[in-house]
């Protein structure tokens, strides 16, 4: 049976494109590693943020649309995206969020402390300290590399049918159920980043998709062969997985698990230096070959954005 090492990426709906770049690059200090379009709706950007290379397990992606309706977080969604930072970094992040007038709460779960806050579109985020995972080498906008976000600590799933979702996490993806307390159950994958998944133990009411909600969570497959194994397992479980879809920087297979959350299996290769030099990631709009003849028209319909150091960042 194949086993995922953890999260590959998480993709969300947000509103203002420049506001999205300002928050995740300017406030959180992540690198914009790819600026492209939604291949299924080319009038909308697709931004990818991560560590210096956009390594699997660090990638937060967005479909920003100025006129997007606001969603509501609830069942059938990833409720919270969790970032990991090096031990001893939480005070830095509390001060930084305070400096940008971003309110936050400090919460405890499974003996860990989390800073919980919303991004500028209402997306629910947490930051926690973790020993595991390679430290980022990216430093931007007053976030030093030794305090920078490593990538995902994991995610909190809001399932409509947590027992059934747990069967998928354990039986299909290979995560181990490791703990339960206070209405939450914890699963762990074998990797050292994006490996901790917490989930509600009681059914939740449906959320509503829109800006400020997660569209899907993607799990890592080492290569095309392992991805096909996952796809076959999903098919055998009557989850109706899609055929393999070429997303340029990884191959993707999608299915909706019984608790209502859209899951993806994404390959680690080829990565974000597939179509531009690693030192220039995210600097220009990259298009797949089939959209290249329409570049001028597409760019005309997209609001220009820039990565910039925000006022007050040190």
TrEMBL record:
Residues in VOC domain copies: 6-130, 151-268
CDD domains: PcpA_C_like
Keyword set, alphabetical order: Dioxygenase, Oxidoreductase
A GO molecular-function descriptor: dioxygenase activity
PANTHER family: RING-CLEAVING DIOXYGENASE MHQE-RELATED
Protein name, as recorded: Ring-cleaving dioxygenase
Organism, scientific name: Paenibacillus lemnae
């Amino acid at each position: 049976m194949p086993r995922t090492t953890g999260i590959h990426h998480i993709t969300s709906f947000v509103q203002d494109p420049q506001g999205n770049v300002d928050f995740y690059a300017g406030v959180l200090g992540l690198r914009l590693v790819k600026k492209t379009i939604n291949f299924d709706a080319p009038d909308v950007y697709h931004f990818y943020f991560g560590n210096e290379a956009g390594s699997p397990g660090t990638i937060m992606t967005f479909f920003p649309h100025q006129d997007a309706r606001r969603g509501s977080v609830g069942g059938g969604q990833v409720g919270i995206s969790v970032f990991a930072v090096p031990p001893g970094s939480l005070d830095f992040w509390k001060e930084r969020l305070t400096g940008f007038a971003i309110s936050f709460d400090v919460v405890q779960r499974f003996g860990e402390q989390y800073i919980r806050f919303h991004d500028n579109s209402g997306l629910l985020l947490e930051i926690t300290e973790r020993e595991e995972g390679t430290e980022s080498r990216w430093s931007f906008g007053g976030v030093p590399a030794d305090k920078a976000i490593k990538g995902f600590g994991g995610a909190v799933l809001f399932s409509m049918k947590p027992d059934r979702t747990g069967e998928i996490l354990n039986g299909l993806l290979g995560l181990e159920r490791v703990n339960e307390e206070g209405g939450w159950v914890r699963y762990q994958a074998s990797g050292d980043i994006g490996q901790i998944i917490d989930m509600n133990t009681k059914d939740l009411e449906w959320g509503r998709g829109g800006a400020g909600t997660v569209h899907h969570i993607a799990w890592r497959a080492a290569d095309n062969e392992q991805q096909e194994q996952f796809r076959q397992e999903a098919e055998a479980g009557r989850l109706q997985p899609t055929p393999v879809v070429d997303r340029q920087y990884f191959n993707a297979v999608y299915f909706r698990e019984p608790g209502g959350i859209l899951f993806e299996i994404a390959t680690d290769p080829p990565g974000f230096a597939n179509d531009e030099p690693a030192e220039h990631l995210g600097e220009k709009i990259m298009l797949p070959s089939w959209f290249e003849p329409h570049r001028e028209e597409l760019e005309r319909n997209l609001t220009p954005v820039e990565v910039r150091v925000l006022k007050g960042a040190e």
